[in-house]
Automatic annotation (TrEMBL):
It comes from the Eukaryota. It is found in: Secreted. The keyword tRNA-binding does not apply. GO terms for cellular component: extracellular region. It holds the Pfam family Toxin_3. One of its GO terms (biological process) is defense response. The keyword Disulfide bond applies. It comes from Mesobuthus eupeus. Its main location: secreted. Keywords: Disulfide bond, Secreted. This is Toxin.
Length: 66
């Protein structure tokens, strides 16, 4: 699946600051194919990762925040 990487400790997206290399590494560690920093959301986007590694709007509240 494709989507934003989930920080399982906080329930938030994995944040980035325009650093594709770190997002790509994190994506591959989580069994994804390719990751990059999505500039407008400042979060790591990962292609080909299992759903369990991805942030989902309905399931993850980011410690009560959206």
């Amino acid at each position: 699946d494709n989507g934003y990487l989930l920080n399982k400790a906080t329930g938030c997206k994995v944040w980035c600051v325009i650093n594709n290399a770190s997002c790509n590494s994190e994506c591959k560690i989580r069994r994804g194919n390719y990751g990059y920093c999505y500039f407008w959301k400042l979060a790591c986007y990962c292609e080909g990762a299992p759903k369990s590694e991805l942030w989902a709007y309905r399931a993850n509240k980011c410690n009560g925040r959206m």
